[in-house]
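Trying the structure run again after the queue cleared.
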Amino acid sequence: METLLIGNLGTSEIIVILIIVLLLFGGKKIPELMRGLGSGIREFNNAKNNISNEIREGMKDADRKNLDSEQK
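Done. Tokens:
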């Protein structure tokens, strides 16, 4: 069974899950949970972008060094 869990969920299943989450955490805790989830996703995306930028800069530096050594 190599399918994604979310890929098999229908509308009724999602509604049931949301009702269970509402019952477990209550209406007051859900906004806090969503804020925490949003900030976690934001931090992950920032880290991913920083790593991508560092890799690109490293590749540019390597290309510049190769061009400099070829010109000498």
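The helical segments are 11-71. Worth checking whether this holds up in the mutant runs.
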